Amino acid sequence: MTTNQHPQTVYYDGACPLCRSEMGVLMRDNTAGLLRFTDISQPGFDAAALGLTQQALMARLHVQTPDGGWLIGVPAVQAAYAATGHHRIAAALGHPIVARLARPAYAWLADHRYRLPRWLLRAVHLHAGSCAPDGACRTH
After folding, report:
1. So what's the pLDDT on residue 114?
2. Cβ neighbours for 28, distance < 8 A, ≥ 6 positions apart
3. What pLDDT shows up at residue 139?
4. 67-77 CB burial, b ≥16 within 10 A, e <16
5. pLDDT digits 0-9 by tens, 90-118
6. Residue 79: which residues within 8 A CB-CB, separation 6 or more?
7. Closest Cα partner for 79 from 21, 127, 25, 35?
8. Low-confidence ranges of the chain (pLDDT < 50)
9. Does residue 127 contact residue 137 with C-beta atoms inside 8 Å?
10. CA distance 125 to 108
11. What single-letter DSSP state applies at residue 48?
12. For the packed helices 87-94 and 96-112, what is the interaxial angle rounded to 10 degrees?
């Protein structure tokens, strides 16, 4: 495995079944070591140390770039997928028409992620391949 001296850091809500499932896919495919993952729902996580609020981090996926910049929401998702070799998904998210649709869709999912129906969560978990239908996910 090749590791990068300066990986991007993904800040995600590990208490969210949908988020945890998608991060499971990204963790599994992070073979080049281009991403680090931080579960912001863990006790003791300090958002203020990053200059952000817990509320802001919980609202949308955040990726901190090696130069200290921030990607938030769809650009964060796009960067995470690109870093894990999912280039078609990343390219699609960068297409102007897809991006225009993805932004409100992502915002709706992020805002309603705790109220999604169980059938949708089961479908996502099966896609991830690391989560059981009851919502339990293996850590990587």
Report:
1. 86
2. 129, 130, 140
3. 41
4. eeeebbbbbbb
5. 999 999 999 999 999 999 989 988 887 77
6. 8, 63, 65, 71, 90
7. 35
8. 1-3, 130-140
9. no
10. 19
11. G
12. 100
